[in-house]
Amino acid sequence: xxxxxxxxxxxxxxxxxxxxxxxxxxxxxxxxxxxxxxxxxxxxxxxxxxxxxxxxxxxxxxxxxxxxxxxxxxxxxxxxxxxxxxxxxxxxxxxxxxxxxxxxxxxxxxxxxxxxxxxxxxxxxxxxxxxxxxxxxxxxxxxxxxxxxxxxxxxxxxxxxxxxxxxxxxxxxxxxxxxxxxxxxxxxxxxxxxxxxxxxxxxxxxxxxxxxxxxxxxxxxxxxxxxxxxxxxxxxxxxxxxxxxxxxxxxxxxxxxxxxxxxxxxxxxxxxxxxxxxxxxxxxxxxxxxxxxxxxxxxxxxxxxxxxxxxxxxxxxxxxxxxxxxxxxxxxxxxxxxxxxxxxxxxxxxxxxxxxxxxxxxxxxxxxxxxxxxxxxxxxxxxxxxxxxxxxxxxxxxxxxxxxxxxxxxxxxxxxxxxxxxxxxxxxxxxxxxxxxxxxxxxxxxxxxxxxxxxxxxxxxxxxxxxxxxxxxxxxxxxxxxxxxxxxxxxxxxxxxxxxxxxxxxxxxxxxxxxxxxxxxxxxxxxxxxxxxxxxxxxxxxxxxxxxxxxxxxxxxxxxxxxxxxxxxxxxxxxxxxxxxxxxxxxxxxxxxxxxxxxxxxxxxxx
Amino acid sequence: xxxxxxxxxxxxxxxxxxxxxxxxxxxxxxxxxxxxxxxxxxxxxxxxxxxxxxxxxxxxxxxxxxxxxxxxxxxxxxxxxxxxxxxxxxxxxxxxxxxxxxxxxxxxxxxxxxxxxxxxxxxxxxxxxxxxxxxxxxxxxxxxxxxxxxxxxxxxxxxxxxxxxxxxxxxxxxxxxxxxxxxxxxxxxxxxxxxxxxxxxxxxx
Lengths: 607, 205
Hints:
The complex is a heterodimer of chains A (607) and B (205). Chain A has 18 helices and 19 strands. Chain A has 607 residues and is an alpha/beta fold. Chain A folds into four domains: 14-135 and 263-283, Response regulator (Rossmann fold, 3-Layer(aba) Sandwich); 139-258 and 293-318, Rossmann fold; 326-380, no CATH class; 449-607, Histidine kinase-like ATPase, C-terminal domain (Heat Shock Protein 90). In chain A, helix 14 packs antiparallel against helix 15. Chain B has 205 residues and is α/β, with parallel strands linked by helices. The two termini of chain B are 33 Å apart. A five-stranded parallel beta sheet of chain B has the order 2-1-3-4-5, sandwiched between helices. In chain B, helix 7 packs across helix 8 (172-186). The longest helix of chain B is centred in the middle third of the chain and has 33 residues, at 110-142.
């Protein structure tokens, strides 16, 4: 163990430089899921530090661009003449880009292609410096699965987008599904917008299903990241949805044989480490990643009345919710044998059901209590500063009132000045009232409200609540919010709690940052993808690799006086608002915490 | 010194700044309000009689730092009154040690404020008097020739004319002439006064 530590330490001086090229931007499933798994795995397993550079060739999803030059220049500048030890293109378009530009871009650096399909990267196209962890999708197996589970299916609608990659897949799917033409009627959604697809999904005939293959961009050219479109489709669809990859499980698909994004990332990391250790890339030839055991979502099976008995052997059922029978088998058996009276049995089951509902209600209540406690404890930490916020207007009120009294005592009182003083008293009183009003909202144990919230206003109000704490800790705040209102649907108190938490984390992180450098940058961006992005960026010590991945776990904390519930709770709140909370290191130092929420007016700015 | 006693008021909170200025003006004081500590430092003129009332917690430059900056800028005798919303003991101890007149907690009572300002006024007048006395002494001292200054340090050290002549390698008569001219220039008759003045001017070493 010690020897290993020493060995690790002696290597530690020189990190491996790995360049990841994303074909689709950071947030496009399934590539983003493969990349995330690869990233986590290589950092975890590598004995030496890994210096990751990531470049998005976003244009790849729009068109197979012949204008590579700016990207080539950008990558050259990014790595400033020091070639990386390994290049990892994620997705076929990124691999094509690299193959085109190899001569200008590090011709001798090994390349490992991640997650492209074997059909797109034939062995002949690879040099001795190349390898890849590739996918081998058995396309007909998808429909075989549908027909095994629902043999009476008459219609299958295929959801596939209209970007160049998706056009490639549309023709592959056409060919692969030819053999089913006499059994089912297959319709294609590739020339529809998401809205039109949803309309069609809501009016599908009985005994039909949707096969969701891939939707990165619809026919109108609107991009969709992270498969949120799938979740909205599930809400309106009247028929079961089948999917193609493990990353869709839990987002509304029934399941079946699935593409394994996690396995691609893991095997990719293993292969990458062998290359980094010195093996020739061409000699590292991992097998293609096939489907794992078929996997299903228990909730979807139940929803569509598909019996688990129909599933192929070796299937894995996720999100399993125990039935009352499974939970209370023995009490029921006992009651049934001792008192074989159906009415008693029914009564008992009802009783248990009520107890479960009561337990659920209690759990919900407890969650609300914890949320409330967290708010109270955050405010407790801030009590000094909040007292200061109220004390300021009180000071102004007292001095104004006493000034007015002194003026009145003079021989010829200056009535204009006295009037001004009284007006200022009214103004300052309102200000103190506002602070108290904001506090009362945060301290109240109210029901969750859902209303339109202008996130920019919420940020301003949060910062004014923290104002004197920020001054006391010599921290500057820069807001980059833009002028227009950014509306989201949600509970203003819960969202403010998230903001408070993120800003206070940023403040805590900068305790040992030199005073002149202490800065928190809060920015919002709207109408991108129909989402509002909120970022809180600090110049603190950042997230260490040890902490990475644990920060959202309940009771995990890096602070002396922390409960370890802050981020876990924030993440829960944001998820309940159909959003996502992320925490990453900034390349320039410090951390960036951010979340995105669905915007309230999807039409504005998207056109 | 024809200038009127002026209260320099520095507080980053506009509402408080305005209210305190109004209160002090109602009492008849000349007030110069600043909500930026930096601006105050730029415009501050030591020559104007007055005092400074500083808020302790301000962004960029807090009250204690401002007090230090003021001292460094040559305003060491500018009386300072602190006003704070928090009133924590360590800060007030540091402020008082650094020579603050008073440390008032917000909300500030008019009586306390006026009392602190009037003490500051007295202190400012006193320190101005001492300062101008010192300045006139310095001016006189500057009129001495190097030889006269040399004789002065020896006299202050308690040496007799004869001894000084020996030390400097000259005649006792010459020393006598230097000595009487030096006393005349400084406007001093007694050696005791000379010693006191040397102490004030910090010449003993």
